[in-house]
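Target chain:
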Amino acid sequence: MQTTNPSSGKINLDPDNAEHGLAQLVLTVIELLRQIVERHAIRRVDGGNLTDEQIENLGVALMNLEVKMDELKTIFNLKDEDLNIDLGPLGNLL
């Protein structure tokens, strides 16, 4: 299983830590999607396309997702920087 080395942001092979590496990869993808959804939501709010109730519901949903992400990072002993994979010449993922 591939895992990201927190000190370098590079992916390393570590068969003994497969569960941790998988959790790290899944949480990285979820965090990337969360950021995309958040940016899209901000554009919709700024564009005036949402009612006050929709804005409130969206805000609550995004806050709940952030809380759940924090819980999962705690369970798997991950920090925000552990989810930021180095893509080489493309830069960091997040």
